[in-house]
Specification:
Blueprint lengths: L2 E6 L10 H23 L18 E8 L3 E8 L6 H8 L14 H11 L3 E7 L3 E9 L4 H15 L10 H4 L2
Parallel strand pairs: 1-2
Antiparallel strand pairs: 2-3, 3-5, 4-5
Length: 174
Amino acid sequence: DIEIAIEADERSAVVAIDGEIFDAVVTHLLNNAADSMEDAAATDEPGFSLPAGTHATRHALIIRVRHEPVSVVVDVVDRGAGMSPEFIRDELFRPFTSTKEGGHGIGAFQARELLRDAGGDLLALSRVGEGTTMRMLLPSTRNLAAEARVFAPAVAASGTVPEMAELPAWLAAE
């Protein structure tokens, strides 16, 4: 069994991407992470440790969500075998190349292209023997930086800072 741990702030997020595309990308990433972790579980390393601040077990697949000014970042973190920088650079996103028996080699390539077509991106951060973070950069429907620029002059003009209840929900959550 693989435990799934979700780490997210309290704010909701609306991303500018088709739901079916998002589902396809997330499904691919979760399946790959689970496969990697199942393979690694057979050769579990006794000295393994999770990063500080992570509230999950060794066998947890972590989904981490955070908000950036113009995007939402979703990390799918596994503690599988990891990938070398050379593999990520030369093979991971190359279509029709697969390390999986019976694989077609289009999953990571297609996931990245779908996100790029929607104005986002897919990055791979990995260390051999430690695991992989697949980072989705999703375009947000809200530009928090622009909203802050609009909100700040109103505060400056009035000379008062509004009560928390009057703050926009995204700012009050901070």
